[in-house]
From TrEMBL:
<feature type="active site" description="Cysteine persulfide intermediate">
    <location>
        <position position="193"/>
    </location>
</feature>
<feature type="site" description="Interaction with tRNA">
    <location>
        <position position="332"/>
    </location>
</feature>
<dbReference type="GO" id="GO:0000049">
    <property type="term" value="F:tRNA binding"/>
</dbReference>
<protein>
    <recommendedName>
        <fullName>tRNA-specific 2-thiouridylase MnmA</fullName>
        <ecNumber>2.8.1.13</ecNumber>
    </recommendedName>
</protein>
<keyword id="KW-0067">ATP-binding</keyword>
<feature type="region of interest" description="Interaction with tRNA">
    <location>
        <begin position="143"/>
        <end position="145"/>
    </location>
</feature>
<dbReference type="InterPro" id="IPR046884">
    <property type="entry name" value="MnmA-like_central"/>
</dbReference>
<feature type="domain" description="tRNA-specific 2-thiouridylase MnmA-like central">
    <location>
        <begin position="202"/>
        <end position="267"/>
    </location>
</feature>
<keyword id="KW-0547">Nucleotide-binding</keyword>
<dbReference type="GO" id="GO:0008168">
    <property type="term" value="F:methyltransferase activity"/>
</dbReference>
<comment type="function">
    <text>Catalyzes the 2-thiolation of uridine at the wobble position (U34) of tRNA, leading to the formation of s(2)U34.</text>
</comment>
<feature type="domain" description="tRNA-specific 2-thiouridylase MnmA-like C-terminal">
    <location>
        <begin position="275"/>
        <end position="352"/>
    </location>
</feature>
<keyword id="KW-0963">Cytoplasm</keyword>
<dbReference type="InterPro" id="IPR004506">
    <property type="entry name" value="MnmA-like"/>
</dbReference>
<dbReference type="GO" id="GO:0005737">
    <property type="term" value="C:cytoplasm"/>
</dbReference>
<comment type="similarity">
    <text>Belongs to the MnmA/TRMU family.</text>
</comment>
<dbReference type="GO" id="GO:0005524">
    <property type="term" value="F:ATP binding"/>
</dbReference>
Length: 354
């Protein structure tokens, strides 16, 4: 097959490309230039699309003996990922930009271009497995990225390759070292790639400005003020800016966000427990269901799983949990996994609404 290997400049994509070459595929490497400030240098495990990342990707391609190109998708990234991220926070939601990047950039803009150029598949370093077109969790549970891939349709999965999903991370680093790849010991990226200093609140304030509002308790009593709902997310405990504790002395958490009035409701952690919720815009990785089905759901990239029954509705799905979950935030994705002993087959996902 003709395979386009997305080389981020990290160890996972490096080994994924190496495995595609070893499997006998005709491989071409491509580095996606997503940032509009690529002259900046990477700082440890923060940031992406830096000069260092591009140079590391080029060196990997050289060692593997494959052609290498840089594709500028910064305009698409700014519109489909960054702008969506800002708009979601302004609307009182908690988006997942990695999930949106996979959906809109790596398996829409990149895959569409690859297919138009005659490639058969796009190869990435995601920790997930494909078995006959079926998306499964990674062998390495701690690194599993099937959640952020749960937005992919069957036709996209048919042209995807995830070569590292059957291996745990330490072995991937050892393999990279044995191949002489300088990315072998490179730190993993974390946090939000386009906010390299980690200051999400400052990033949003710079783009949205101050939008004063009130912090209230469950009874509606005003406890304080804030500079904008974009500084909060459901389940947040720290940084609330309250000058007095709750009457019972227990921590307060963000329970709800109302962007129009600018009201942020806080209360006890027990009030975060959710037993049922609605979600919109479902995507079915394994085909649309013909009625309600039992599954395991995951509501965050790491953690937050529970058995559930999912019922398709006219405008999305309703999720009824067998046991309450905390941290169910509007704007996040809920991923559905097959409810069998392994529970590792991804059925689809939807965006949590309320």
């Amino acid at each position: 097959m003709r395979v386009l290997a997305a080389l981020s400049g990290g160890v996972d994509s490096s080994v994924a490309a190496a495995r595609a070459v070893r499997a006998g595929h005709d491989v071409v490497g491509v580095h996606l230039a997503l940032s509009r400030t690529r002259d900046a240098l990477r700082s440890g495990s923060r940031g992406c699309c830096s000069r260092e990342d591009s140079a590391d990707a080029a060196r990997v391609a050289d060692v593997l003996g494959i052609p290498y190109y840089v594709w500028d998708l910064s305009e698409e990234f700014a519109e489909d990922v960054v702008a969506d991220f800002v708009a979601s926070y302004a609307a009182g939601e908690t988006p997942n930009p990695c999930l949106r990047c996979n959906e809109k950039i790596k398996f829409a803009a990149l895959l569409d271009r690859a297919l138009a150029l005659g490639f058969d598949a796009v190869c990435t370093g995601h920790y997930a497995r494909l078995d006959g077109g079926v998306l499964r969790r990674s062998v390495d549970e701690g690194k599993d990225q099937s959640y952020v891939l749960s937005v992919l349709r069957p036709d996209q999965l048919a042209h995807a390759m995830f070569p590292v999903g059957d291996t745990e991370k330490p072995a991937i680093r050892a393999e990279a070292a044995a191949l002489g790849l300088r990315t072998a010991a490179k730190p993993d990226s974390h946090d939000i790639c386009f906010i390299p200093d980690g200051d999400t609140r400052g990033f949003l304030r710079e783009r949205l400005g101050d939008r004063p509002g009130s912090l209230v308790d469950e009874s509606g009593e005003v406890l304080g003020t804030h500079d904008g709902v974009h500084g909060f997310t459901v389940g947040q405990r720290k940084g609330l800016g309250l000058d007095r504790p709750a009457a019972d002395g227990r921590p307060r958490y963000v329970l709800g966000i109302e962007p129009v009035s600018g009201t942020v409701t806080v209360g006890p952690g027990t009030a975060l427990e959710v037993s049922t919720f609605a979600a919109r815009s479902p995507v079915w990785c394994a085909g649309a269901p013909d009625g309600p089905f039992a599954c395991t759901v995951q509501v965050r990239a790491h953690g937050g799983t529970a058995p559930a029954e999912v019922t398709p509705t006219t405008d999305g799905v309703r999720v009824d949990l067998a046991e309450p979950l905390r941290g169910v935030a509007p704007g996040q994705a809920v991923a559905f996994y097959r409810a069998d002993p392994a529970g590792d087959v991804v059925l689809g996902s939807a965006t949590i609404l309320r």
